[in-house]
User: Fold this.
Amino acid sequence: MPERLGLRIGIDVGGTNTDAVALDATGALLAKVKVLTTPEVTSGITEALASILQVVESSEVTHVMLGTTHATNAVLERRDLRRVAVIRIGSPATHAVKPLFGWPGDLRTAASAGETIVGGGFEFDGREIAPFDADAVRRFLGELPERPKGVAIIGVFSPVNADHESAAADIAREMLGDVDVSSSHEIGSIGLLERENATVLNAALHDVARKVAGALTAALQEHGLKATALFAQNDGTLMSLGQVLHFPVLTIGSGPSNSIRGAAHLTGIDDALVMDVGGTSTDIGAITGGFPRESAAGTDIGGVPTNFRMPDIVTLALGGGSIVGDHAVGPRSVGYRLTEEALVFGGSTPTLTDAAVAAGRAAIGTGAPDLTETLAEAVRTADEMFADGIDRAKTAKGDRPLIAVGGGSVLVPDRLPGISRIHRPENYEVANAIGAAVAEVGGQVEQIIHGDLDRRRPEIERLSDEARDRAVKAGADPATVKIVDIEEVPLAYLTSPAVRVRVRAAGPMAGPPRITQR
Amino acid sequence: MRAVLLDGPVLEAIARGAAVLGAGGGGDTGVGLLIAQQAIEESAPPELVALKDLPPDDLIMPCGGMGAPTVSFEKIENGDEGARLREHVERTFGKPVVAVMASEIGGSNALTPIGWAARMGLPVVDADGMGRAFPELHQVSMHVAGISPSPAFLTDERGNVVITRAVDGPWLERINRQITIEMGGTASTAEYILTVEQAKTAAVAGSMTLAVRIGNATVGAPDPLEALIGELSAVRLVDGKITDLERRTTKGFAFGLATIEGIRSDTGRTIHVEIQNENLVAREGDRVLATAPDLITILDWETAAAIPTERLKYGQRVTVIAFACAPIWRTPQGIAVAGPRAFGYDIDYVPVEDLHA
Assistant:
């Protein structure tokens, strides 16, 4: 085999499978593997990586991209979280809802070493609410019953002015030495409680971040890989290993973005609906201008609301393992036991896969069951559910193309209402890992801008520079990073114009120069 | 009299009901619910009382928050604003406040006064000043009934207190809106202070229990939409999908136009909803389907949860309903304050049930 350079390995940890792929510098697929996701996640990743490295040489690989559920699981299971000091800067405002009010008790116990509200913070127009109370921060940190393992700092309107957060961070470092500090202006957007929750979770996840970064680094070393490691985040972009140590919470929810990006890469289409059919469920999302369309509302993580924007997904309880009953398909599924329990694999549970094989849509397993009325009805029901899901996921009139990916996508019929054409790319079953491998590096910034349009323009320019800067810090190539989205939402019920502006930048990652295949 | 306590489950029902009564406006109820929940945890759940059970000559304090909801979700209030308003109301009027009343049942303003009442140990009156949400201070039933808005009280989390003696409601709105911006974009206010006796005709009675009933109607219902429509005797204007959304802000008002294309049995129909902070007019071509002061609410068509205008999104599947406003808004004076022409639409107000008779 001739030596190739600039290979990328993408790994995506899903609920059932951990998928991995190797792509060459042109984006062509060289190797793929699916292994079962292990409960502690890491050994599944190592196994998938080892299997890929039987096909490609470690010296050829320059980047390894990982989309993982470590952080999600840690929050859901309240495992490996560390207790952090929570400092909110905003008194005399904000006392009506205290930090972590409404959190599940066990998560609060696992994540918080104590909370306070100190004087300071800013107004939406940049004035101070009150002077920053440095003494109160010192008193709080000095009187905590335990030495906190991290510090979460949240200032009112810190996305407008972060000075008080920075001042509090300096005090925390001065008093606690080498402590990890999470500052909310680097993590979330306007909306104090959601940004605070995300910041506290982020601070509590630092050990998890070290563990996963350590495990990946160890796995790379074990295989003699000198590649740059990058992590997929919830908005579909990547961040560096260094960034993940600071912002572990951003890795939560990267899965749906990965499969949407992967589908776009496999087909070369960047405006389409994407249907990812798995064993138990089907996710339908959209890619617009090359990026997954985001949901308008924030996301609940482990019982705690945050303002992370996840891809806008319609989920159907329908997949290859969905059990066929009388006049019904799903929501129960045989899941990963499909190859033991389905009729086509000699089992005794009729599944949607059996129905699809009987209807002649796919050739899977060892035999084709008879097309009984029950199975025929299951196919019709599933088709109706797919059609309904597509209609719900569509955001514009007219027919759109659909990209069908995921292990169960053979179940998708050739014609669906509202769909101009169905694309079934090769390597559809590892679209998510491919999505991780081809993702760009991103950065975003959000702020309230006060004033009319003439005053807004230079401010938006400044925010754009900052978003580009953040993307470059996260590992993007400064030469090619560009602004991908500017969102402006006016504030209601105020007589002076004020607009919430969010700017996102993204670009290919910086790295060794790409060398084309010999 | 059976005392109703505004405890945890009741607060959640009020939050859902207040969102429906917000007619798209009034601000998301999420933070307001947390404020009320923390207050009842730290103090005790307040009682909900009927006007007839209170001493007729004592004072009711209509109150709530003013300004940008976006700011109030970031710079959350202190919690002591209500007590400060009461102190200054009592000092100025020389009479005790016997109960708190939400000025506006629609949106988050249904909940913050409950938090204040809990902290003060005062009951909450089963009434409000709108029966819905409106953007301006003088768009309240007390204004229609001829109650003086002044002296009016405004405070912030720092302890600033401004007492405004405006010549009329529109002037109060104009002056206090400016003070609100100086206070940081949100303020806590009490105005149109009145006696229990006056409130019996000047307030919209029963609005808290209505919010509770709306909030409970959908819980566990096999068809939440049908349950809600039944509870409100609402007209279902359309089942559809948002296919276009225009937004702009002029002088602090979020203007918008939502286009909803019918689906299911409404396929082929196109409905437009005109928005100025709240949903104000629904039309189908030249035909008017409903206008303010009647309520037009856009609901998630599966959960029947109300969708505030700032959360409307291209592609959402919705059911648009309209239902009757409080009777006081249907008087000539009420229509002058909050009818379609008060918002700049050249339409005569016709009650929603007459439009769909």
